[in-house]
Every structure is written in structure tokens, then in C-alpha cells.
Amino acid sequence: MRSKWIEGYEGHYKITDQAEVISYCKDKNGKVLKPHLNKNGYLTVELGGKEFRLHQLVANAFVPGKKEGLVINHKDGNKTNCLPSNLEWVTSSENTQHAYATGLCPRNKGPRKDSRQIAQKDKNGTVIAIFNSITEAAIATKPDSMSLASAVSKIKQVCEGYTHNGYTRKTAYGYKWSYAD
């Protein structure tokens, strides 16, 4: 087992390659500190009244490749596995890509939970189609030359009875629109 003094705490605390912090503050033989799980799922230890993430202490001491702007990635996705063999220095972008690739950050699938269904109606008010969201309706019906944001805005104005300068928008793209619920 290798150990190194923690930068800024030389003579007081060491970090080992087994992800243990040893305090020499009250015991000259050293006492292993017990890490605690923080609210974000990382193991932390307190050094001199300040909280540190264990994986950062380990990486700073035992993982080569540290450069400004890089962050620490847990290769196996387990935030409590702080062994040097499980840590690597990566860019923020690479860390995010790793989180998605390993399923740590699930991709959004389907409509948002707060989306409302939208009814597309002909000029007589007969329902032609139901969409899971305004965005879905806009994608299906907007002219190619119009931005998605503009199309969403127009359909939303119809659904919400938007009035501007005495004019109430009643249709968008030749259809009436309303919330289906």
C-alpha cells in the first residue's frame, strides 16, 4: 500500500492508494478516517474542518494526467469506488458522454411529464389529430421555412386564446388548436 501526504495538509493527513485517509493529528501512528456519503452520493472526509471528496484526494495523489480544466471520471460509474484504477482525468464533455453511455444519466424519452396533449381541429372544430405536445404538433404542421420556436408559439397562442392589439389568434397553419385535456 502506497501513501502520500495530502497537499496543504502535510504532516497531518495522508491518502493511500486504497482510498483511505489517515490522520496523524492526534495519533502519531495514524488513524484511518471513516468517510461519509454526501447528498450527491460521493464519499467525503473532513480535513481540518473542511469537507473533501475522497475520489478527488485519491486522483490528485495517484492518477496521472491532471491538467487544468479536467475533471475526475469514475470508470465504472460507481461514485463510491475511489480506487486509482477506477479514476481518470477527462474533460467535462467526456464525463457527460460517459454518464449517458453507461446509463448514469438517462436520456429523455417520450413527452415531458408536464406536456399537455394538443388537439388539431379543422375549421368546423372536428378533431383531426391528437399530439402529445405542442412541439410535436408544430413539427408535424409547420412550414419548412418557419423555425420550430415560432411554430410552437403560434399554436400555443391559439390554445391559450392569446389576444394582441384587439386581435385574438384563432388558427395556426389553417387549423384550430386546443388542449386535449
Account of the 3D structure:
The protein is 22% helix and 27% strand. With 181 residues, it is α+β, with helices and mostly antiparallel strands. It folds into 2 domains: 3-101, Homing Intron 3 (I-Ppo) Encoded Endonuclease, Chain A (Alpha-Beta Complex); 118-179, no CATH class. The strands form 5 sheets. Strands 1-2-3-4 form a 4-stranded antiparallel beta sheet, with helices on one face. A hairpin with a 7-residue loop joins strand 3 (21-23) and strand 4. Helix 3 crosses helix 4 (148-159). It is rod-shaped, with a radius of gyration of 28 Å.
CATH architecture group name of the largest domain: Alpha-Beta Complex
Mean pLDDT: 89
Overall shape: it is rod-shaped
Structural class: alpha+beta
Strand order of the largest sheet: 1-2-3-4
CATH domain class name of the largest domain: Alpha Beta
In terms of per-residue confidence, which ranges show pLDDT below 50 for 5 or more consecutive residues? none
Sheet having the most strands: 4 strands, antiparallel
Number of strands: 14
What is the total domain count? 2
Cα gyration radius (Å) = 28 Å
User: How much of the polypeptide forms β-strand, as a percent range?
Assistant: 25-35%
